[in-house]
Write a structure and sequence with these properties.
Distance between the termini: 28 Å
Number of helices: 4
Structural class: alpha+beta
Strand content: 25-35%
Order of helices and strands: EHEEHEEEEEHHE
Amino acid sequence: MILPIVAYGDPVLKKLGEEINKDYPNLKELIDNMYETMDGAYGVGLAAPQIGLPIRLFIVDTSPFAEDEALSPEEQKELKAFKRTFINAQIINEEGDEWAFNEGCLSIPEVREDVFRKPTITITYFDENFEKHTETFAGLIARVIQHEYDHIEGILFTDKLSTLKKRLIKGKLANISKGKISVDYRMRFPNQKKKR
């Protein structure tokens, strides 16, 4: 089932996600719905807060990036195959020199800005079967994970922009929260005026 994506301005996007256990109600169905929702919106990642749930769960599927011809065949192959569910994730290390990449977010449509992040991360997490993993990721995969991880920490990519950049997009963000935007996927807007 495709779920509505929560738009910028909803308080759930600023909440620190709570850990869940394997008995979380309808967890498998929730994860399936999240993949369907993400695919329906042509996303590469989706975090539970983006569908209104303040829990530590996010999914990543970098296959859309594999189409980028600027990447090496190895990178394309790796991105095409990467699809993962992260539960109760904790980034335990970030290393390397920060690099900029133009990021967007399904909760903040039509806003894209360069965000600086470290290129390599080590993260511990549980998969959908509640098996624990500790893995190191680099490049675009690391970047998507960091972006989604920020969501379960109550951080949006716009929080990482300079004061000037934030000022420049302030009007756009206000319009998004009011639903004054056209998107081709279901959304829920926190400040939308109720129609009489």
